[in-house]
Amino acid sequence: MFNEFIKHYNIIRDILRDCFLYGYYSRDGLENKRNVSSRKVSYEIRRIQQYVENEYIRFDKDGRYKLMSLSYDFLRHPDNFLVSTYMTKSFTRTDLLTYFLLLLFIRSENKPCSLKYIEDGLNAGGLVSFDKISSKTIQRKLAEMCESIGVLSCEAVKRTKYYSISDDLLKTLDTDELKELMTAVGLYKNIVFPVTAGYFCQQTLKDYLQYERKMKYEDKNIYNYRHVHFHPVIEEQVLWEIIKAIHLRRKIRITYHSPKSTSNSNNRKILSPYKIRYDVRHGRYYLISFNTHNRCIVSRLDRLEAVELLEELFNREDFDEEYRSNMLYSWSSASLTPANKPETVKLEIIINEPAENYILEKIKYEATLGKLEKIEAGRYYFTLQVNDSYEIIPWIRSYAGYVKVLESKQLAEKLLNDWKETLSNYGIV
Amino acid sequence: MELFNEVKNRYFQLVFRIINECADGRTKTDLVKIVHDGEFEQKLIGKNQQSFADMILNKGNKDEKLNLLSEKEGLFYPCIDSNGESPLPVRFTNLEKAWLKALLQQQEVKLLLSKNTLDKLNKELEDFDSPIKQEYFEMTNSVKLPEISQWENYEANFRLILNALINEKPIRYTNVDRNGNIHADKLALPVNLEYSMRDSRFRVSLYSIDEKRPIMANIFSLSSVIIVDEDIGIDRETAKKLLFEQKYSEQPVILEVTDKNTAMERCFMCFSGMERTARELGNNKYEIRLNYYLFEEENLIQNILSLGPYVKVISPQRIANEVIKRVKKAISL
């Protein structure tokens, strides 16, 4: 009905991520980065401006360039504004009319209705003109509303299907219980993945209170969150497909994002999806799956262009041990490469006790598989196994001044060189 | 159901609301206002320059009218009479049911939902097959704090604080801080319940009436918590504003980032919850300005250090000096 909407979320996914995470790209910059035409970049930026509320969009000038960025403050803005980008799927006039007319009609009849009964009813009321909307279209929409969307239910009597409004699963809840549920949904909408579904659920519940129970509900915004990143929501369309595949034990074909060569067959792999790992610190999803040779494959979701569910099934339990052995010592996403063993990292922790005991506590709770050993007051050894010691470099760096790497020598050397380079950046030799 | 589905389109949702709002008849002015409040700031224009409000109000030729509403004596009603019920039913979609079922599996949801509510919802959803299962996810780079030992005390505190927040009431409490000091019978207004995804802990943000400043407390370390009816001279919104004003740094941190080893990406991911701007300096270098809360300074310094030699603090000098001090110490160990 309107050109502003999009058929596939992928259309805005990359540009949205660039605008949100980076924000320093001009239109020309985005055009070069994504290897797409400036017209497309302008189009998608205009869409994003429309989809996202103004308070999160800012424009800065860099010389002659205008830079758009999306930004928020975790304390002031507990609601993920990027969720609104999922409320933009295009629809036709027929989609809109059939959906609402069917709901209105079946609700008003208050009894199971067959396709013929519905058609006759809509026709008699002059609501549907069958030269514009065919019987097949209505039948397809009814099936979609039952099987996929779930707002209708269907029962077959002999060969005729009868459609009703789905059961009200909140019917047994009283006012206080509904308020409790609202409070719970309000909290967990940012925590349980995919969070987009949580936001949708909250809106449906608000509508339910207002229209089915005639209750007024005031959202008091009593929650705020730490380490809840907003940007992973951009990958939730892909995440949702993967979760369904894991659950249904269906193999998938994934296509990696490759703006410059879309026809490369290396970008398409058939895999058995096993688990999603979410790096809480950076807000990054990884898919852990196994290829046809049972080799563990790690894929970042923001690098996946598409996920296709295949008919071929796999047995998830076949990979339980494989996953454990590959990922037990993974800090975030690094899997154990074939024929390799986990590396041992040994640190010495030097603190002023008791004032800096909290450093010790933090290290212990952040690396729970590590072993702590006291040498003397204020000096400890901390030993841990990791698949790839380079993966924990940022973590070790964050304790600069408190930890010294004893093992491995290469790791110690790498960190020492990093520190020397850091000081030289500040002009200190 | 797809996550990206037209029934969740903002305008689909708007039509849904409009039809239900018209159950008892609405004037054209009412409808124009509902459309105005619900649509994009830049209004959508269809074919033949028709606005969305025009379509809803059945203006234009017969192909352009939606005819989902009909007009009687100046009032608009749904085109099909609902016999006293709300015209459109409100039902969860399959996607929402899947999420709701996953919500019920969360360990701490019992703090928010009574057993009765949980039992009822579990019963309603028992035959629904949700693909969202905790066993399909693993959280990494997280913090695993020890289990809360006195769960009953924690549960009671949690419920009471939640209640105080909902009803905007102050509390009196006793707290033991990290150093073992006891703060007895303190008066404070709960401002927010805070959840950290990194350590899966709830904390409470309070405005201390005794000390006239915002504070943060672990829910499990509180005792003797009671809701009181005392006049404290401040409401939650004002307390929140004070938190934002008093704790927000006046000057941003300015960083110079060299984009090696995806440093920019890691930098933005670490600081994604902070208001920020960035610009290109040339030669693969970028400048990032971050606005931060003063109580986040230690985390900020740790994050800067974690990014290694690719990030340099330009200002404030105080933070640059702290980074230099720690790096010098790291070399000397």
UniProtKB/TrEMBL annotation, chain A:
Residues 238-308 form the WYL domain. Transmembrane segments: none annotated. InterPro entries: CBASS_pafABC_assoc_protein, WCX_dom, WYL_dom. Residues 344-422 form the WCX domain. PANTHER family: PROTEIN PAFC, PTHR34580. This is Uncharacterized protein.
TrEMBL record, chain B:
This is Uncharacterized protein. It comes from Ruminiclostridium hungatei (Clostridium hungatei). The lineage of its organism: Bacteria, Bacillati, Bacillota, Clostridia, Eubacteriales.
